[in-house]
Specification:
The protein is mainly alpha-helical. The protein folds into two domains: 8-47, Arc Repressor Mutant, subunit A; 51-196, Tetracycline Repressor, domain 2 (Orthogonal Bundle), CATH 1.10.357.10. It contains eleven helices and no strands. The longest helix is centred in the N-terminal third of the chain and has 25 residues, at 51-75. It is elongated, with a radius of gyration of 19 Å. The protein starts with 7 loop residues before the first helix and ends with a helix. The model has no long low-confidence stretch (mean pLDDT 94).
Length: 200
């Protein structure tokens, strides 16, 4: 059980994540989470009005470390091409790790993206915002000649779609990690080369 000094909603989210990881999403219920916390299910519903909202909030909680890592990369003093490479790698490894280690939780993310639910839209917006910041920095500093951030953004996400989109990663879940890493490294190099040459 989480530390009782934590805010109640945070304790509920952490217990929900633990339940999903141990038992899977289908077998995780509001009642089972409440019982583990020594609460009534009615008390849980005061914080999260439905199981769907609870699961969405738990998914968002699981994605916070990745979002924080992307913000940290965006704020780093590294050259823009290096930061974009680190971002792509961070997203790929985070999603791939989640897909292999916490498949039920990853499926919740992929479904939220497919259905364009709030948690999926907000997470994608945060990822895109971090990438946009670096692309605009690269354009402003001359690392990415061309001057069209929207076109550069579209190119980046289109080129790396297989490696940084949850649905694509779900389809590749059984693929060799080494093979995927090699392909991603090659595609990332080509993508960054095109951006640095202004050929997008």
């Amino acid at each position: 059980m989480a530390d009782s000094a934590e805010p109640t909603d945070q304790r509920i989210l952490e217990e929900t994540l633990a339940h999903i990881r141990r038992h899977g999403a289908r077998r995780t219920t509001v009642l089972s989470v409440a019982e583990a916390l020594g609460m009534t299910h009615a008390a849980v519903y005061r914080y999260f009005p439905s199981k769907a909202e609870l699961f969405d909030a738990a998914t968002a909680e699981a994605l916070r470390p990745l979002e924080a890592a992307l913000r940290e990369i965006a704020e780093a003093p590294d050259p823009a091409p290096d930061k974009l490479e680190r971002m792509a790698t961070s997203v790929h490894r985070a999603y791939r790790g989640l897909a292999l280690e916490d498949p039920d939780l990853f499926d919740l993310l992929a479904q939220a993206v497919v259905e364009a639910r709030g948690v999926g839209r907000k997470h994608r917006a945060r990822v895109q915002s971090a990438v946009q910041r670096v692309i605009e920095e690269g354009i402003g500093g001359g690392a990415f000649p061309g001057g069209d951030p929207r076109r550069a953004m579209a190119f980046f996400f289109d080129a790396l779609h297989r490696f940084i989109h949850p649905v694509s990663i779900r389809l590749d879940r059984a693929a060799s990690a080494a093979a995927l890493d090699q392909r991603m490294e090659r595609v990332t190099r080509m993508t960054l080369r095109a951006l640095t040459l202004g050929r997008v």
